[in-house]
Design brief:
Two copies of one chain form a homodimer. By secondary structure, chain A is α/β, with parallel strands linked by helices. Chain A is about 30% helix and about 20% strand. The first copy, chain A, contains 13 helices and 15 strands. Chain A has an eight-stranded mixed β-sheet. In chain A, strands 7-8-9-10-11-12-13 form a seven-stranded mixed β-sheet. In chain A, helix 2 packs across helix 3. The radius of gyration of chain A is 22 Å and the shape is globular.
Chain lengths: ~350, ~350
């Protein structure tokens, strides 16, 4: 079973704050890592998460600077560290021109940089999943949300039915589950109907958007922007952003299982945003930087928000047993720094 | 008497680390704020220092991305916050082209952006001080260090000499000290010789450099890069950088009062770099992000390194009395973050 988890690398919007970095989310899906958006400072946030450089795809929602300006410096850092693994950037039309303009920052790269401009509704097919570009409503230029759609999983195997049909438990059970016919028994005789894969949707920046409601239908997690509170509805409309209440309405209409609000402005506390959304849609969370959402298979339970602080508490205990560098350093030479400095892991203590 | 202090906003080099951001130093000089270099992520580091946007000049040493890539995003943030105060960028020839290329990031600005390309050895004259561009040795393109040179101060007033010449203590003392002749007594009769102002020099990135030794002669503080340890001497030479030992030799030859090493690579701990330099030049410090150096008038004592952690301890006490937002937030809604998140001030606890 493939683990699927979202790591919120930066949860602010437009302008960073001391609490919230600019937009970036890492999706860890089995052995793969995908980055969605990459605002200024993302490379350092990734280092603090212990996830720097571990991905080969970056999906950019649109070209407002807070969503991509972390890329050129990160490419330069990869070059300085002599990365060899190819990296592919995906985004709306214009991506190639933008990155060529930015090559003044990163110069020649020692690895292959792919630049893929997606058309609205185009899908990137991967082994076991696809990522679809959803056209959203954020000004005149094309802006995307993205839906990560896991392929259908085989139905549930019924061991009693198989034994009833004369199959001996053991290897033959496995062969049936992998789609082989065994002694005349066909897989569909002992397997339930295919089960839907999981789905995670990122809104990018957008006004409330019908295409997103459709794409998010029964998603396990919808990560939606909530740049404004409802008191600023008019301003949200003018700037093609959403209020927390509007994001919650999208989540409700799409019947998603969990709504995670992000792109939080420095105007608001996470609590204000959360409380407003929960009036409409109770399964709402407002992750902070370094928080994680584990997306379980539906039959295992709902997606779960894990605070970075909780993970750090666990990891910190382990790392200290192995000899925390901060504890080994003499206090007069390199005193202990706050957690994000002292540990290789995550920030919150 | 004007306060002169350096705030180390980012002390890493080339690639950020969890501990060290990319190069940036704020100089606070009386009521003015000057920023020297501005790597990616500087705007957020400045927010954590409580110094975001409080300056009207940025001096760029050279055009490797780690020294300027924080500017375009910061300009965008200023625009979003509707800054009106003009901002002037200074740097080597090429600054204008670079910033025009980067305008794809920040678009139209609601404030005046000045772009001033300096010639080697050119000075920017300000009220009471000057900033001189020092040509340093960092590859083929022009790279600068900068010397901030305070104007000479008047000599010391001798009240006994004045009384001896028939001047009555009070207003007339002040008039003499401000350069007026009083009852036939000329200021030079009662004032000592002019006293040298303070001097702070930034090396930028450079191999050991004669021009820097000359410019740094008897400087109060020399902020010098130390990208490598001496074991990597050959690599330092190839990349036109300095080792910690070489930086210390510059400081020794220039007879500076305090050497502050920066542009520290993730390869080394601050302690290694410091110990190597101190073998050559004992008055060496290796500031961390958010540390401060107070530059006193020479007769008041040497420049002093103040750890961010010490300042935070003082400020934290005060801010909590005023009602720390982290303490007011209910634990289940917006739990207390690590110090750099919880406080408006600096990072280290």
């Amino acid at each position: 079973m493939d683990e699927l988890a979202l790591f919120f690398v930066g949860t602010g919007g437009s302008v960073p704050t001391p609490r919230r970095g600019l937009p970036a989310v890492v999706v860890r899906f089995g052995g793969e890592r995908l980055l969605f958006d990459c605002g200024e400072g993302t490379q350092r946030q990734l280092m603090q998460l212990g996830m720097f450089g571990e991905f080969e795809s970056i999906f950019i929602t649109h070209f407002h600077a807070d969503h991509w300006l972390g890329i050129p410096g990160m490419l330069k850092s990869f070059a300085l560290r002599e990365r060899e693994q190819p990296l592919t950037l995906y985004g709306p039309r214009g991506l190639g021109d933008l990155m060529r303009t930015m090559s003044v920052v990163y110069g020649r790269l020692p690895f292959e940089l792919g630049l893929v401009e997606l058309e609205p509704a185009q899908s990137v097919e991967r082994d076991g999943y696809a990522i679809a570009a959803i056209p959203v409503a954020h000004g005149e230029r094309t802006a995307f949300g993205y839906a990560l759609i896991e392929a259908d999983r085989p139905g549930e195997f019924d061991p009693r039915a198989a034994e009833h049909l004369g199959i001996t438990p053991g290897e033959d059970f496995g062969r049936l589950q992998h789609g082989e016919t065994v002694d005349g028994v066909r897989p569909e005789q002992v397997m339930g109907p295919p089960r839907e894969g999981r789905k995670v949707v990122f809104s990018g920046d957008t006004a409330p958007c019908g295409a997103l409601v459709v794409a998010s239908h029964r998603a396990d997690v919808l990560v939606h922007e909530a740049t404004f509170a409802d008191a600023e509805l008019e301003r949200a409309r003018e700037t093609s952003h959403s209020t927390a209440r509007q994001a919650a309405e999208v989540a409700r209409d799409a019947e998603v299982r969990l709504l995670a609000l992000t792109h939080i402005s420095s105007r608001y506390s996470g609590r204000e945003v959360r409380d407003e959304a929960r009036e409409v849609f109770s399964a709402t969370e407002v992750p902070r930087d370094f928080d994680e959402i584990e997306v379980l298979f539906p039959e295992r339970g709902p997606a779960v928000l894990v605070r970075g602080s909780e993970r750090e508490a666990r990891a910190g205990g382990r790392s200290r047993q192995k000899g925390d560098p901060a504890e080994l350093a003499p206090a007069d030479a390199e005193p202990v720094q706050p957690p994000e400095h002292a540990h290789e892991g995550i920030t919150s203590p």
